[in-house]
Amino acid sequence: MELNYSRPAIRWTEGLPVGNGRLGGIVYGGIEQERIALNEDTLWSGYPRDWNNPLALQALGEVRQAVLEERYEDAERLSKAGMMGPYTQAFMPLGHWHMRFYHGHFADGYRRSLKLDEACATVQYEIGGVRYTRELFASYPDQALVCRVAASRPGQLEVKSWLDSPLRSTTAWRDGTEAGAEAGEEAAAAYFAVRGDCPSEVSPNYVHDPEPVKYEAETDSRTIAFEGRLACRADAGATIKVDHTGIHITHATEVVFYFAAGTSFAGFDAMPDATAYPPARLAEQRLRQAMSRSYAELKRRHEADYKPLYERVRFTLGSSVSDEARAMSTDERLRRYGAQDAELVALFLQYGRYLLLASSREGTQPAHLQGIWNEHIRPIWSCNYTLNINLQMNYWLAETANLSECHEPLLQFVQDLSVTGEETARIHYGCRGWTAHHNSDLWRQSAPPGNYGDGNPLWANWPMGGVWLCAHLWEHYSFTGDLDFLQQQAYPVLIQAARFVLDWVQPTETGEYGTIPSTSPEHRFRLPDGRTPALTVSSTMDISLIRELLSRCIEAARLLERDEPLLPELERVLDRLPATRIGSRGQIQEWYTDFADEDEAHRHVSQLYDLFPGSAWGEARQPMLYEAARRTLELRGDGGTGWSIGWKIALWARLRDGNRAFDILRRLLVQVEDDGVMDFERGGLYANLFDAHPPFQIDGNFGAAAGIIEMLLQSHEDRIDLLPALPDAWPQGEIVGLKARGGFTVDMAWVDGRLTRALIHSPSDQSLRVAYRHPFVLRCAELGQEQEEPLPGTAALEHSILARQGLTYVVQL
User: Fold this and answer.
1) Which terminal CB of the chain, N or C, has fewer other CB atoms within 10 Å?
2) How remote is the C-alpha of 566 from its chain's centroid?
3) Are 291 and 189 in contact (CB under 8 A)?
4) Could you give the C-alpha distances from 139 to 112, 144, 383, 399, in angstroms and in order?
5) Does residue 657 fall inside a structural domain?
């Protein structure tokens, strides 16, 4: 389980990603000059501001009237003119950490690798008979990037290291002879620092702005200030000198570098405060903490934190790959074999889990469009949180891949967004509760983006972002069974989102409740006269999301034994939501009316939400809609961007067509050159296995990894389905540690495409239903345990029992 390469990275999308949820780095692995691109999760442009538009409420009535009268162009014009807020802010790069070595660039035996089981990037090569080694990891317990550089012969290391930043910044240094920062402190170690400020506003990459990056006056800065500090320790024979150009080390055998950072971020709802949160002080404290321990201890603490999480899941697929192929670099294997290399598929799944661990840990910001990594001041799509699928897709594998702790940053984000979204619901729509739209950012912007009219209602005026995010609160509960979480954190947010929905829906002429205006994210419909509007009534996805939220609020109230005063209203609206419709071609209608598609091969498949990631349709649920979903996917085709391909893998897995899911996976595991061309029909992977949208978006990595899991295990139909969509290409394999709803842990092994054994561990006393396509027997693994009811002894396609807490159950054919 490692990525390996035979040459240094040239482009950012060839570098190796490391991260601890707060600090991120992309390691290029250069020989003569190493470069590590640095990120910190709270380094964003802007500051908290009033993004709500007081004109929106008046415009809403006019837009609704225009939609109902089918004056679609007027509806879009009015929506643009009166219902948008500002664009969201952008995630910023901190800078670069450089190392210059003075041994030249001609090297033998070069190898760089990323070991997923250790979360450690390494570089090795030989020059003049001396073997040089670099190891770099991002420590979560010690909140630092740590890099060990070593030579195989004493005194052969000569290196200079320094920091810089593309942001407005300066550098500073200390040579180690000064006293501590405050009286009584131990003298601080020598360091080199970069410090600066984020812009006050950064326009999205798609906006033609004559001043796209704006900074505040230095004397009146309200933006985030930052400092990154670099220090080192070397063996006794080395000489270390620090000056304004960097840290200079000569005659060394081993050097350990430490990088730490701090920002003035004071919270999503507070102005950045460099007095209360001084970046220099935070960076100094974190640097001291890391430097107080030896390299061996730092690495031990890092692995003790990381490995128990990563090693929960083990995945192997039987492979006929030759030893020659195994000796190839990862990019060469991807180029030659792609998904036909079963070992590469297993690596890709574990890489998705690794990336989530690297970009989303408890107490950090959630993973954005590029996880925690970004090299540009104006990143694509602002590197923000896109709420019409992309942020949610980042977390589709959190629970199933046994990384529930990594879900926490998103769950906290939803809670934060419910605070800012309450004002948006009131000001924009005159509604109770809370709402969010297409984009958000560090500051939890909840208003429709679009710079008060420059955006497009096609994506901007979509108030269902908060409703979709609520699904993650419920998923976390359904996998963990944590009633305290449901009661204390999830339910208050769910019921407030439901309050918004109750006020947002409108009674229609048919006696149903609908959403007006409504869009199907980023897709237009085609009228008989050729026009392609975006705003209409009751898109299928709107209704699916609302039905799911209201149902779960009712279920949560029952579970928590709440005397919920909204219950009659929830049930009344739920009962009168329009049913999902099947269109003239046997497909799920994307809109209430059976409109034609503007783009039949569109990357979004929003009308299939109830198939995945929702759970309303399944083989045993809504069979007519289930088959209509299949027809919809056939009409949509198998192409699309990287994340769209990831979604389709999961959708075909839910349809139990493993071979079709695998065919689509093959379209993703194709190497794409990073040529800077934005092409929504060309999904694939870059050399470092980052998903090529293109450009890079990490949701494709996460979505496809979640789709692979759906091929192997499903639990959305109130039962555990074993190997529901196993493709012919994976006749033999084993996976250990997957999670099913109810908190069950599932291990499986199969040979010749047939399950040989499965173990299901129950964390509590609860009902357990297990299904497989061939008859099987279910028994308790712990011999002699008393059962409240006898386990089935006859082979069948499905078994239901009462599982006991702490016991493991065996499935055998």
Assistant:
1) C
2) 33
3) yes
4) 20, 5, 24, 23
5) no
Last residue of a domain, one of 310, 327, 352: 310
> Which residue bears the tokens 């006749």?
731
* 654 within a domain of the structure (yes/no): no
Position 169 in a domain: yes
Q: Are 198 and 257 found together in one domain?
A: yes
How far from chain centre, in Å, is Cα 25? Answer: 17
Mean pLDDT, residues 559-585: 97
Q: Encode pLDDT of 189-238 as tens digits.
A: 799 999 999 999 999 999 999 999 999 887 668 999 999 999 999 999 99
Phi then psi for residue 594, to 5 deg, are -80, 65
Tokens (6 digits) for 435:
């709402």
DSSP for 448-479? Answer: PPSTTTTS-TTTSS-TTHHHHHHHHHHHHHHH
Q: Is residue 38 included in any domain, yes or no?
A: yes
**Is the same domain home to 106 and 253?**
yes
Single residue among 578, 612, 639 that ends a domain in this structure: 578
Domain total for the chain?
A: 3
Residue of higher predicted confidence among 542 and 326: 542
Give yes or no: residues 34 and 81 share one domain: no
Which structural domain, as residue segments, surrounds residue 782?
731-812
13: left (phi over 0), alpha (psi -120 to 50) or beta: alpha
* 397, 732, 341, 135: CA torsion to nearest 10: 60
The CATH code of the domain that includes 139 is: 2.70.98.50
Residue 722 has phi, psi (to 5 degrees) of -90, 130
Query: Of the ranges 87-96, 173-182, 661-670, which one carries the lowest mean pLDDT score?
Result: 173-182
Cβ-proximal residues to 538 (8 Å cutoff; 6+ apart), any chain: 508, 512, 514, 515, 516, 518, 578, 591, 592
Alpha-carbon distance of 398 to 404, in angstroms, equals 5
Task: Choose among 47, 89, 53: nearest CA to 212.
Answer: 89
User: How far is the C-alpha of 570 from the C-alpha of 566, rounded, in Å?
Assistant: 6
For 650-692, the pLDDT digits (tens) are: 999 999 999 999 999 999 999 999 988 877 777 899 999 999 9
